[in-house]
Write a sequence for this structure.
């Protein structure tokens, strides 16, 4: 009997240690690492004292977190919004786009958030986000359709830094950028790890609409070593200082 009680006690102790561990950390179903009750603390910790900057990188706050962020009084004048790897998806971007909380944002970082062309459509049709100077959309799923939407948008007129790396972009997207009348202030553009061939790259480096571009990264696209040697000598961009084609 004593042995049985002892074993039972050990079992209860093990369960007591195990259950809290199961309740914390990642949600096995959704993969979310931020619990709903932790979201206010995460937002408060990631917001600067003056509310001008919010950095919630790699927090996986999800759609619930974005909804709460949009209702947070302290961030109503935010200028820099960094939301890398937060599982936002197009729904999360739509929430950002519809909220006047973000009307003053100048620097928007949405790297790795499963955003497609639908999310970009929400963004460019928004009554807000009219003061963008830096836009990071690396490692999403924009494709040519999403890039065309950006290239056609007047919201891009003040953007000086644009990161579209790893977005399944082909020649059609590259050509849309090259022909855009709204990207004349770009100084840096990253298009690495896409599907752009020599045709799309040639359109970019001979574009008449990118007069201020100084840095262009086209690493890991669909070109051969022979084509790279040829393309490196073709640039007609007047202020280009760094061209990377590997």
């Amino acid at each position: 009997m004593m042995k049985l009680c002892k074993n039972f006690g050990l079992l209860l102790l093990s369960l007591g240690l195990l259950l809290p561990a199961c309740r914390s950390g990642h949600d096995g179903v959704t993969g979310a690492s931020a619990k709903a009750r932790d979201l206010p603390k995460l937002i408060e910790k990631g917001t600067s004292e003056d509310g001008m900057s919010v950095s919630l990188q790699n927090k996986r706050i999800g759609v619930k977190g974005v909804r709460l962020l949009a209702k947070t009084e302290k961030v109503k004048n935010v200028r820099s919004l960094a939301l890398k790897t937060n599982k936002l998806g197009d729904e999360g971007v739509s929430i950002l786009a519809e909220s006047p909380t973000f009307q003053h944002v100048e620097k928007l970082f949405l790297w790795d958030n499963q955003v497609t062309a639908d999310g970009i459509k929400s963004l460019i049709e928004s009554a807000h986000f009219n003061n963008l100077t830096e836009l990071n959309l690396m490692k999403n799923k924009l494709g040519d359709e999403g890039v065309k939407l950006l290239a056609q948008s007047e919201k891009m007129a003040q953007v000086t830094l644009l990161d579209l790396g790893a977005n399944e972009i082909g020649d059609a997207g590259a050509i849309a950028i090259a022909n855009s009348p709204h990207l004349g202030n770009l100084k840096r553009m990253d298009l690495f790890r896409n599907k752009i061939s020599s045709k799309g790259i040639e359109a970019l480096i001979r574009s008449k609409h990118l007069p201020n571009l100084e840095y262009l990264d086209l690493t890991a696209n669909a070109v051969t070593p022979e084509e790279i040697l040829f393309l490196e000598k073709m640039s007609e961009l007047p202020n280009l200082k760094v061209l990377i084609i590997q």
Remarks:
- The first strand starts at residue 53 and ends at 55.
